[in-house]
């Protein structure tokens, strides 16, 4: 079970993850009886996480430049030779503008930040270290079932659709390519529970390299088969699916 926990924490295996991460989480498990119970957002992140943050910012006069792409970081050097940012060159279709701010924060994936940074900034060690990061592909698969996948005690109860049953938690498995998974219909019922439908199983495949080039149907076939052969023993049929492939985690390669 070591690798599944490492993958869930940092999307890399035990040979590459920092020992501090593993020591911290297992020390927490050992000292707090409720530590292994992970509470998730009760619904969509857009409603329960990013939405409230967006409202907080706009209520205080902030603005969001949606659908504008940042094409260039505009910068100069002060008299003391320190580099400072003058603004961001933005574009949308044929429209262009420069956005200025008191502070600038870049939240990008690994390929994105490498494209965005001015090449001359590689002279600074802080920014040059970014080019030692390597993206870790992650594939997220959601499967909707005609029953409750994590209801392990009673076959009849797992098939009924009158009420949600199963394990309300983030779960780990060493028996599949997905290191962690959860039934979103139980963990985040506000948006993901559907009357008359069963589990919405979300599986995180990492490293996702073997799956990135595959068509969605083949990804679903492999994941559904692994759900059936994993430690979950009572599996209803799945009825629909969603696949999201991204490269949004990074490891440092010295």
TrEMBL record:
InterPro entries: Amino_oxidase, FAD/NAD-bd_sf, Zeta_carotene_desat/Oxidored. Residues 5-227 form the Amine oxidase domain. GO terms for molecular function: oxidoreductase activity. Signal peptide: none annotated. It comes from the Eukaryota. This is Amine oxidase domain-containing protein. The lineage of its organism: Eukaryota, Viridiplantae, Streptophyta, Embryophyta, Tracheophyta.
């Amino acid at each position: 079970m070591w690798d599944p926990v490492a993958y869930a924490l940092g999307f890399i295996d035990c040979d590459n993850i920092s020992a501090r991460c593993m020591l911290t989480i297992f020390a927490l498990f050992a000292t707090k009886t409720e530590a292994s119970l992970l509470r998730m957002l009760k619904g969509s992140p857009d409603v329960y996480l990013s939405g409230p943050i967006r409202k907080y910012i706009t209520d205080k006069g902030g603005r969001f430049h949606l659908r504008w792409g940042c094409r260039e970081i505009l910068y100069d050097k002060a008299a003391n030779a320190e580099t400072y940012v003058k603004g961001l060159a933005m574009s949308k279709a044929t429209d262009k503008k420069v956005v200025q701010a008191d502070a600038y924060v870049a939240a990008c994936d690994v390929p994105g930040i490498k494209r965005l940074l001015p090449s001359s900034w590689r002279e600074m060690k802080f920014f040059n270290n970014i080019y030692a990061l390597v993206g870790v592909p992650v594939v997220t698969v959601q499967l909707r079932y005609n029953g409750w996948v994590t209801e392990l005690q009673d076959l009849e109860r797992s098939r009924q659709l009158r009420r949600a049953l199963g394990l309300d938690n983030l779960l780990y498995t060493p028996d599949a390519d997905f290191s962690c998974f959860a039934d979103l219909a139980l963990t985040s019922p506000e948006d993901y529970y559907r009357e008359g439908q069963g589990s919405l199983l979300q599986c995180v495949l990492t490293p996702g390299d073997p799956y990135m080039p595959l068509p969605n149907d083949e990804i679903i076939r492999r994941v559904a088969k692994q759900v059936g052969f994993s430690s979950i023993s009572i599996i209803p049929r799945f009825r629909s699916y969603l696949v999201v492939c991204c490269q949004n985690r990074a490891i440092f390669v010295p």
